[in-house]
Amino acid sequence: MTKKFLYLVQTDGNLPSHYDDIPNENADILYLSWKEPIEGYIHFPNSTSTTDRNRLLEEARNSKHQYLYYIFLDDDLEFIQGNWRYFEEMLLKYMPAIGTSISDNENLNSSLEAQVVYSYDAIFNPFHRDVVFDDLLLPYIDKFDHVCWYESQLIFVHISAILYPHHILQFNYVEVDNSKHNDYPKKAIFAEVEK
């Protein structure tokens, strides 16, 4: 059986124990360490969350195996509701171009198992292989990382909504949170991005 999911994790090396549950007969995991070299991990120092994702993407695209979903996630994700396997079930059931979990209740219609959303957090996002290899949306734009690491996701959200309207799904019975809040540039520059 060909594995369907590749999890792409950027980390400082400290991971919650439930990350050990990711690899199984249907899922692989690829780690990138931006802090210290760790055996078996890609080491990518002096990077940003955007360039980390792009480096993981490059490695995934160059793999001899093509997965159905490439799932980017941060190293501090904790489930409030749901788990890895349930999230994978939802991906296979609905087959979105891009998926997301609940990371706030702003975009929630609790009567629906899944719903189309416009905006979503970068903490936990699967991309269908067609999105990964179509060269339209990825790699992330890192032009503004020196000022604010949020801008790459803002740009990404807007472009993804144009390219994949009605194909960005939030799974309403998967809720996550993250606990780490590292120090990085956070000065919002929306006016500059729109130029």
Q: How many helices in DSSP terms?
A: 5
What percent strand? 25-35%
Spatial extent as radius of gyration: 16 Å
Fraction in helix:
10-25%
Q: Care to count the β-strands? A: 9
Write down the overall mean pLDDT: 88
Global geometry: globular
> What string gives the helices and strands in order?
EEEHEEHEEEHHEH
Q: Which residues form runs of ≥5 with pLDDT under 50?
A: 191-195
User: Structural class, judged by helices and strands?
Assistant: alpha/beta
**Largest sheet, order of strands side by side?**
3-2-1-4-8
Largest sheet: 5 strands, mixed
Distance between the termini: 47 Å
Report on the structure:
The N and C termini lie far apart (47 Å). The chain has 195 residues and is of the alpha/beta class. The C terminus is likely disordered. It contains five helices and nine strands. The protein is globular. 33% of the residues are buried. The strands form two sheets. It has a five-stranded mixed β-sheet with strand order 3-2-1-4-8. Strands 5, 6, 7 and 9 form a four-stranded mixed β-sheet that branches.
Provide a compact summary of the structure.
The protein is built from five helices and nine strands, in the order βββαββαβββααβα.
List keywords for this structure.
single chain, 195 residues, alpha/beta, five-stranded mixed beta sheet, four-stranded mixed beta sheet, 5 helices, 24% helix, globular, disordered C terminus
Topology diagram in text:
Layout lengths: L4 E7 L15 E7 L8 E2 L5 H13 L7 E6 L2 E5 L2 H11 L3 E5 L11 E3 L7 E5 H5 L17 H13 L4 E11 L11 H4 L2
Parallel strand pairs: 1-2, 1-4, 2-3, 6-9
Antiparallel strand pairs: 4-8, 5-9, 7-9
